Amino acid sequence: MNTKRQKRRLQIIEDAIQVLAEEGYANASIGNIAKKGGISKGVVTYHFPNKMQLMKAVVEHSYGLAAPYMEKFMDGLDSAPATLRAYIESNLRFMFEHPKYVTAIIEVVSNLRTESGELYYKDEDESIYEPLIDILKWGQEMEESFREFSPLIMARTVRSVIDSLGPKIANHDISDMESTISEIVDTFDYATRKTTK
Q: DNA-binding region spans which residues (predicted)?
């Protein structure tokens, strides 16, 4: 794909994200997204033949921005507890600093449906837990810095807390970013650490 086409495609995705954040999924039509970007519907459908493809691209793009953001926080850390703290902090900080992407993901995941009317993102993607499970197993099996627990259950719990805060953060219902991040990070630090008898 040439650079000009990539730029246009990216701009359409960003315009879609803006419409989703400002007007919601119901108003995120190809026409409204084209209007937001000052282009014709034909230009949008050239890159994304239908709304489903565009909405899936919105989710992929938004998650794609979060991954390198989080990696910067975790690079070079030499212990599992520090890496777990960085994972949680960076995920929450990304949400606070980029609420429109959080809103866009929520809107699409909650509304995008298949031709049969089922939610497209109904089936949970287990791969989202893999980075956390790796961190938790590192702390249990290699460092022995974490107590005994099920890495999958703990990973699900961490993600559940983070994901439940997404809508509140995106709607600006939580104003104190630093204390919120600190509280969640400390909670899982205590929940996972190995205690001495």
A: 29-48
- Chunk the chain into consecutive blocks of 10 residues (it has 197) and report each block's average pLDDT, rounded to whole numbers: 88 97 95 96 95 96 93 94 97 95 94 91 79 96 95 96 93 92 97 83
Domain ranges of the chain: 58-192
8 Å CB contact between 11 and 37:
yes
**Distance from C-alpha of 169 to C-alpha of 52, rounded to nearest angstrom:** 26
**Measured between alpha carbons, how far is 19 from 55 in angstroms, rounded to an integer?**
11
Give the span between the Cα atoms of 84 and 17, in whole angstroms: 29
Reported pTM: 0.87
How far separated are the first and last CA of the chain, in Å rounded?
60
Report the top-level CATH class of 58-192. mainly alpha
3-state secondary structure 108-121: HHHHCECCCCCECC
